């Protein structure tokens, strides 16, 4: 069973993720802001994080750096993080990669591209 | 150097003004009546206009009224010359949007002060307006990206899901395909417009090699994806000589190769080969996309001229024109070139060049501005 945490504030995007990802071997957990997302991360073991950049309470890259800090502190394995954002600016991409995200995809999502990226990171 | 138009029927006054302005470093053009002045104002777009009120053929007020309807002259300082301090004339002039008035006979200092003040004011206004326009564009871009891409995300994914789920219902399946195609079209237009604004209106971004990509792999994926979109997978051919390109910004390269491939597939005859050759030589990446077009060659050349004419705002309304225009800007951004060559047999070659990361770093390639 693959456990995926999705931190995304837009309900339509959450339904889109469900349409693409849901199957018998995948469990999706949703968080609608950064605080809720970090809380879920701390109390569960996930295989993958899909992260939006523009959340109501904090920017996505800050969540990624917080997670990387927790991993360092607790010597935990690195959680694959894919940012999926509508913002394709270099500034946002640079911030995300500096914070330790593994991949940066832009919306609208291409289903094949998302699935290929997930496979790359999980295998 | 500012260009000033003087519209005055009295030769002595006109020559006197020109002499004073030339001595103080301004360029001057002059007209002897309102009608001539109007034509010169439209043709030569002066930075400031000094205009008498009472003149033959067309008076100063009528000239100002006409210019108020010319978009290019909104904000051009306009100074009236009056014979005496006639309050009616001054009020009329100001109501029409004049910036100032000078009473004849005038002192040299009064003329120069008025001209200098109005030009400084105009420059300040222009800078403020530019800043406002850029702010509006930034806000529009940020909002459009978030709102439109979120909606398009749903349209594209859900229409695809409906298409897959309705394989046994041809009506439903066709509708899902149409929704998907429309969403793709809107997505392409929206993102190309945003890219255009970024490249043309914003300060040029430094090329920051954030994303390491294999350009050869990306270009190959794009040409086969475009071929698939046009149901012409067998027509696509990709050849890549060794390309040393841990290359630049993925979004730029994706737009560039998607647009040139889209153009050639869209206008070439199904069944004819669309070949893309990619190679790198001495720090320059070159790509050549070749095929045979469906349309007659004259039409194609006219289109190409329109596409690549960067002053032709009219052409931007055509999505393909926008795509090729963007391709040209992206090549320029990477210190390269974009050209289209066609011959009387309807064969067409789209050729583009880009400097590699190493070449850009070493040669300090001038960026788009």
Please tag this protein with its features.
heterodimer, A: 123 residues, alpha/beta, five-stranded parallel β-sheet, B: five-stranded parallel β-sheet, five-stranded mixed β-sheet
Short note summarizing the structure:
The complex is a heterodimer of chains A (123) and B (369). Chain A has 5 helices and 5 strands; from the N terminus they run E-H-E-H-E-H-E-H-E-H.
Verbal overview:
The complex is a heterodimer of chains A (123) and B (369). Chain A is 47% helix and 20% strand. Chain A has helices at residues 11-21, 34-43, 60-74, 90-99, 111-122, and strands at 2-7, 26-31, 48-51, 81-85, 103-106. In chain A, helix 4 links the parallel strand 4 and strand 5. Chain A is globular. Chain A contains five helices and five strands. In chain A, helix 2 (34-43) packs parallel to helix 3 and helix 3 (60-74) runs parallel beside helix 4. With 123 residues, chain A is an alpha/beta fold. By secondary structure, chain B is an alpha/beta fold. Chain B contains eleven helices and ten strands. Chain B is elongated and about 85 Å long. Chain B starts with a strand and ends in a 6-residue tail after the last helix. The relative contact order of chain B is 0.07. Classes of the chains: A alpha/beta (123), B alpha/beta (369). The A-B interface holds A 10, 12-13, 15-16, 19-20, 54, 86-88, 90, 93-94, 97, 104, 106-109, 111 and B 142, 145-146, 149-158, 160-161, 183, 187, 205, 208, 210-211, 249, 251.
Based on Cα principal axes, name the global outline of chain A.
Answer: globular
H/E element order of chain A: EHEHEHEHEH
Rg on CA atoms of chain A, Å? 13 Å
Distance between the termini of chain B: 22 Å
Describe the strand arrangement of the main beta sheet of chain A, using strand numbers: 2-1-3-4-5
Average residue-wise pLDDT of chain B: 82
| Assembly type | heterodimer
Q: Give the fraction of residues assigned to helices of chain A.
A: 40-55%
Q: Bin the helical content of chain B.
A: 40-55%
Lateral arrangement of strands in the main beta sheet of chain B: 2-1-3-4-5
Largest sheet of chain A: 5 strands, parallel
